[in-house]
Amino acid sequence: MGTPTDTFLTDALFQPIRLGRLQLANRMAMAPLTRHRAGPGNVPGPINAEYYAQRASVGLIIAEATQVSATAQGYDATPGLHTPEQIAGWKLVTDAVHAKGGRIFVQLWHTGRISHTHFQPGHQAPVAPSALAAKAKTFIMGQGYVPTSTPRALETAEIAGVVNDFRTAAANAIAAGFDGVEIHGAHGYLIDAFLREGANQRTDAYGGSIENRARFLLEVMAAVVDEIGADRSAIRISPVSPVNDSVESNPQPLFEHVVRELEKLHPVYIHVVEGQTGGARDIAPFDYEALHRLYSGVWMLNNGYTREMAVEAITSGRADMVSFGRPMITTPDLPRRFRENKPLNEAYADAPIYGGSGPHGYVDYPSLA
User: Fold this and answer.
1) What is the distance between the alpha carbons of residues 60 and 44, in angstroms, rounded to a whole number?
2) Which residue among the candidates 75, 189, 269, 362 is catalytic per the annotation?
3) CB 311 within 8 A of CB 13
4) How big is the chain by its Cα radius of gyration, in Å?
5) Predicted pLDDT of residue 2
């Protein structure tokens, strides 16, 4: 018989939860994790299907950030959802996950200025809210990490087309068998860049005031909700993370406005990265509970959560679900390890988190017998 603490942990993390039309087995999610493992044409293949199927015991898998168009790419070997071949490749993944009883959303992104001419059709400049280069780097195979390219500002008339790219990619996701989509509104990519004064110096309806800077995010979300339904649409935000040169002097009123307006669209969950992505949780003061009070759907938290921290967040009511990143890479059976209070796998020292080829460091992390 387990100790009271073990029972408490099990009860908190392993209660089922309703997510739109889905019943999830537990309150753990696999965070979207870019692995640079897509095949030629940015098409997922059988090894990607194996990777995700190994992790199907988590309540919800959020598949890695996936391009909504050819111009949305910012890194090598990241998958897309804008060609028939990509849709078919992702269908391999979703079928494998569903065969194991899992549930899977996909994160849809446009990298915006966090890109390089190398990835752009015709080697054109990437697009962004304003023609401001990010103090950031991307990865090009054979060259390593290189500074991102100076972008060009989207013309006002072009923005509706980018919104439609998200709509189309959401429809493609459902065609590929995903249970829903998470819009990537975080980490300095296109949607987040529109939000922030450090990247957005526009003087049209998409710049200046908080309401204007939030317009693009809300138009994308409204289009996706209209296309596939609110119960299959979600979004991720990172209010204070400085990753990818994200600069905003006063994020509290900005993100309170965003969440207040999202509540009207009622996406099925909001996924909040607390603190610096992959870094300090207390990098800047921010009242996350003020956001939580503005939203009535499933509230998912992320960034460096341990088993015990996740339980505290759920039992205190600060979160309905918690997502886990790197532990899900190294420990495919993470829910079982947490349930049985077993140690997690250590990361292989000779296998990269980003990139690589073949099974090592990707599908050869062991599960318990």
Assistant:
1) 19
2) 189
3) yes
4) 19
5) 37
The β-bridge relationship of strands 22-24 and 17-19 is antiparallel
Total Cβ atoms within 10 A of residue 91: 16
Other C-beta atoms closer than 10 Å to the C-beta of 109 total 31
DSSP code string of 119-170: GSGGGPPPEESSS---S-EEEETTTEEEEPPPPEEPPGGGHHHHHHHHHHHH
Q: Is 189 labeled as catalytic in the residue annotation? A: yes
Residue bearing tokens 């600060």: 318
Query: Token pair for residue 246?
Result: 């994200």
How do residues 236-295 score in pLDDT, each as one tens digit? 999 999 999 999 999 999 999 999 999 999 999 999 999 998 888 999 999 999 999 999
Position of tokens 């898998």?
A: 61
192: CB partners within 8 A, 6+ apart:
185, 186, 199, 237, 238, 246
How far, in Å, CA of 134 to CA of 245, rounded? 6
Distance of CA 114 to the CA centre of its chain: 15
Between CA 247 and CA 249 the distance in angstroms is 7
Burial 283-321 (b: 16+ CB within 10 A, else e): eeebebeebbebbebbbbbbbbbebeebbebbeeeebbb
Angle at 132 between CA 130 and CA 138, to 5 degrees: 115
DSSP string covering 168-219: HHHHHHHHTT-SEEEEE--TTSHHHHHH-TTT----STTSSSHHHHTHHHHH
